[in-house]
Specification:
The complex is a heterodimer of chains A (about 180) and B (about 425). Chain A has about 180 residues and is α+β, with helices and mostly antiparallel strands. Helix content of chain A is about 45%, strand content about 15%. The chains are: A alpha+beta (about 180), B mainly alpha (about 425).
Chain lengths: ~180, ~425
């Protein structure tokens, strides 16, 4: 191949959730920044072990929800009271009461759009290519193995030292993924 | 940042309280002015007004309000125990025992029902309505005195049977550690949830809704249920915090406290959904048999009470509980839980009192007396039964799961574990 391959990340395989939890704690305490844990199922307490703060997606949901409520209310006000007023059932031309169900649905709709798009934005999705999938072992992350991945771009990364750390943590298989 | 939030919250609480008191006082003052201004009017107002309400009636209504308030907490505890078994839940094992004790206060509530049974003719207009109106004639099947008493008796019998068994098998497991107890409890829960739904609906209809027997609302039972469970969750939150520093130390984790907080948030929304639906359907259909109930509650200071319920029962708690970390922040959760009690009491008052005081919110000395007396009796019984048994189901098969399945306590304790590296 013409291109030269550069190290992308170190991939360490663990066999039990307890092991990977222990490893995640140690990696966090060692001060790594660009790293992640991949498991076949959610592990309770992993967020704490990795030191992950609460997600910021909620702000996107909130803004979406408030936008939806405002749009719903003002749309119905504009249509029923301002643009084309018709009395229906002896009710007032506008009341937040009858406008509520539609506004509420719009609140939920736009809040979920906010959540989805906010999540994609924060996770930099869609992402069509990740070198990690070059590793054949990594396929077992969706089956029965637990992985800690430390990226080479991490300021603390060192091909030798980091590998030693992961070995000490009890990983039987450590692989350097190149890209 | 947090102390600032707490300050804002306190100010909001204070503002709402001032508003509430203000609206009561203005109506009282307006009454007095009206009485002073026109003598003829004064006589009429006197006749229809509070002075005409005999003490026994004032007491009976205050007692009913306090009774329905505490009944909420007992029924809410019952449903939390039932749901625990139905969902085969793990997280709620440590908090289940004290909920079983609260649910088993229902037989005590049966004794406390006696004053209502004796004063029923004072409380429920349909009991003494002569001649009966059209509505009462057609609803005679439900609304006649023998049925009222028989239903009340059966309701308390079923509650006693159910809560006694739910507690009995749970305590038995403390001694034997037999997982079969869990299976038996699950059977009780499967049947009990039906009993719960039916009896709660009957209780809400007979004891609260029948104050205005002409009213129709298919949501009334679930409306009472939503507010009840909401109040119980706030109570449960406070009890959990208190006990986690005492007898429940070592079995309560952030996970339990957080989950109770989440449920409290869920029921904030659920209550709003139910009460809005009831109001919305009645408002939209605009049928007099239904609207009169809300028309009465939009007059005088009851309008302001309705607004306090709209904002205080839903909007403020909803916004306050929205953030994920608030559910673990005691300086915010503590005032919210107390506020929840206040709001639910106001909600029960909003259901009961307009019948007696159509002009507006009117508090008498009987309100705090009944609240304190019933509350003290229940607290005393609860304390005794709590002390008599293990503070949590010590040999429940799911207990280990509840204890080990918790989030990291905090970063500091992790450092000591990882210190070897």
């Amino acid at each position: 191949m013409a291109e030269t391959l550069k190290p992308y990340a170190l991939l360490a395989e663990f066999e039990t959730p307890a092991d990977v939890m222990q490893a995640a704690r140690a990696v966090r305490i060692a001060g790594f920044r660009r790293w992640d844990v991949h498991t076949p199922f959610p592990i309770h307490g992993m967020d704490g072990a990795m030191g992950i703060k609460n997600s910021k997606v909620g702000y996107f949901s909130f803004v979406g929800g408030v936008t939806g409520l405002t749009i719903g209310m003002s749309m119905i006000w504009f249509m029923n009271k301002y643009d084309y007023p018709i009395i229906v059932g002896g009710k007032p031309l506008f009341s937040p009461l009858f406008a509520f169900p539609v506004s509420y649905e719009l609140t939920i709709l736009l809040a979920s759009f906010g959540t989805l798009l906010g999540m994609c934005f924060l996770n930099r999705l869609p992402k069509l290519y990740n070198p990690i999938f070059k590793s054949e072992r990594f396929a077992r992350a969706s089956d029965d193995r637990f992985f800690v991945v430390i990226e080479a771009s991490d300021p603390k990364f060192s091909a030798v030292e980091t590998r030693k750390l992961l070995e000490n943590l009890g990983s039987k298989n450590i692989e350097l993924v190149e890209d | 940042m947090l102390s600032k939030l707490f300050q804002i919250k306190t100010w909001l609480l204070a503002a709402a309280l001032v508003w509430l008191i203000h609206s009561v006082v203005t109506v009282e003052a307006a009454d007095a002015v009206a009485k002073a201004a026109t003598p003829t009017h004064a006589a009429a107002a006197d006749h229809a007004g509070d002075a005409a309400v005999p003490q026994i009636k004032q007491f009976a209504y205050s007692y009913l309000t306090a009774f329905m308030f505490y009944l909420s907490i007992c029924l809410g505890a019952l449903v939390l125990v039932l749901l625990h078994h139905l969902f085969d839940a793990g997280w709620s094992v440590p908090i289940r025992r004290f909920l079983e004790h609260i649910a088993f206060l229902l037989p005590v509530m049966g004794l406390l029902f006696l004053p209502i049974a004796f004063l029923a003719t004072e409380i429920y207009p349909w009991m003494t309505m002569n001649p009966p109106d059209h509505s009462l004639t057609t609803k005679r099947v439900l609304f006649n005195q023998p049925t009222f008493y028989v239903v009340a008796f059966v309701i308390f019998l079923l509650w006693t049977w159910l809560t006694w068994n739910l507690r009995r098998w749970s305590i038995k497991q403390d001694q034997t550690g037999d997982p079969k107890c869990t299976i038996i409890l699950r059977r009780y829960a499967a049947g009990g949830i039906w009993i719960f739904a039916l009896t709660l609906t009957f209780a809400a209809i007979y004891w609260m809704k029948s104050l205005q027997h002409q009213f129709f609302s298919t949501m009334y039972g679930v409306y009472y249920f939503a507010g009840s469970t909401w109040t119980t969750l706030a109570t449960c939150y406070l009890i959990t915090i208190a006990l986690s520093r005492g007898p429940l130390k070592g079995v309560i984790f952030k996970r339990q406290i957080y989950d109770i907080g989440v449920l409290l948030f869920a029921f904030t929304v659920f209550y709003a959904y139910i009460h809005f639906s009831q109001y919305f359907l009645i408002w939209n259909a605009a049928i007099p048999e239904e609207t009169f109930w809300y028309v009465l509650r939009e007059k005088g200071s009851w309008w302001d009470v309705g607004m306090v319920i709209l904002f205080g029962h839903f909007v403020i708690p909803f916004v306050a509980l929205l953030r994920i970390d608030v559910k673990l922040n005691l300086s915010i959760m503590f005032p919210i839980c107390v506020w929840v009690w206040l709001m639910h009491y106001l909600d029960v008052t909003f259901n009961i009192m307009p019948v007696l005081y159509p002009q507006g919110l009117h508090l008498t000395i009987w309100d705090p007396i009944c609240l304190v007396v019933i509350g003290s009796i229940l607290y005393w019984v609860f304390k005794k039964s709590f002390a008599a048994h293990a503070p949590y189901p010590i040999r429940d098969p799911r207990l280990k799961e509840a204890i080990t399945w918790h989030e990291e306590p905090d970063a500091d304790s992790v450092t000591t574990q990882g210190g070897a590296h």
